[in-house]
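Translate sequence into structure tokens.
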Amino acid sequence: MERINWMEEVLKRKDDFLKDLQSLVRIKSVLDEENRTEDAPFGEGIKEALLFLLNKGKEDGFEVKNLDNIAGHIEYGKGDELIGVLCHVDVVPEGDGWDFDPYGAEIHDGKLYGRGSIDDKGPTIASYYALKIVKELGLDISKRVRLIIGTDEESDWRCVDHYFAHEEMPDRGFAPDADFPIIHAEKGIASFDLIYPKKQTVNSSTYRVVNFSSGRRYNMVPDYAEATVEASTDTEVLAGEFKAYLEQQGLNGEVKIEGNYLHLSLEGISAHAMEPEKGKNAALLLGSFLADKEIDEASKPYFSFIKESLLNDTRAKALDMSYEDNVSGDLTVNAAIFAYKAGEEGKIGLNFRYPVTFPMETKKLALEESVRPYGFKAEMLSDSKPHYVDEKDPLIQTLQKVYTEQTGQEAKLLAIGGGTYARSLKSGVAFGAVFPGKPDVAHQKNEYVEIDDILKACAIYAQAIYELAK
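Result follows.
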């Protein structure tokens, strides 16, 4: 058989590819449980994005299945064995500070901008067109290939839980939702809530913290924090100190005064929880400012904990959770969710990305001990165990061959702190779509996908699907 020029096949379909990607990015598929219905369990936007892709598959002659608007698949081929390509169409909230419409799918200087463009709508469309190329070329394959589409990857993975409760597990596969070359190890992901007890506030201090809040998701570094403080003395003193703090730290923020109350706000920089050091945590910066002031006894331990145990410590040394191994590197912690209101129970939500060999039970006890002096109780919310595929596995060998042939580069094996759908597979890895040396802008403002890169990824996926299924 004549050698297939996979990139040439992709470029033949470039216009349609970009048109479909723009259409998908323009759908605001953010989790919306407040307006959920039985027919749209995660909100209308997510349902619309899922149906867009499934209807596209139906139009192109694939076998399509919709599982209650929670997940679905697009299938091609015959055979007993099943190859899975796991994608998702939900996105994190857009956040603030964009230069372009986050749902405009505008193209500027070879980049398509929009929330989800690289995580994971660009790679999803690339995978779909890869499967479409294999089908349209009429290639001889002996296995079935399923593009499995999730809708709750950015939250609780209820989509894959529902899908695999009703559908068969692929024999092997990949998730196009991270970095090239190949990610064969993914850290465990555990979220904890630190519960702060309800305390009666006695206004005998200079300042009383009325409320403090920050954070949207456990998997995002919070980029905005706000607090309301009651002053028993001149409000201008604290206002001046806060402005000086912002200037000293090179931060944007605002202070408003209403009678004896000051409303403080501070802007940080969001980042993915797997690399919290790449962001500026607005909650930790504002909370640490308050910790240095003469605040009321009820709130003092809450803010002292922020400064002493969380600020500038993304490796969780102060929490006695630090750990590393040779397979997957070191543990990271993202201080993600903050809620404090005078006279009510408070909370701090933490998200840990822990190595493959991490002794969770022992370390969980250490965390409980480290937060106790401040009055917190640690409650585990979730724990997704680490995922690892041996380098000698045939799946790895095949993908390494494909990547090297398509790029001319060595297909190194990587470990990450992010969690991809690969960990829901019996034998699966994360495979692209961010190329080595390129910035990962997932979950950030002005998220984009480079058009040349996503087309190249499509060629890689097309060959990979063919090699795995032939």
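Note: The domain at 6-186+387-469 is CATH 3.40.630.10 (Aminopeptidase).
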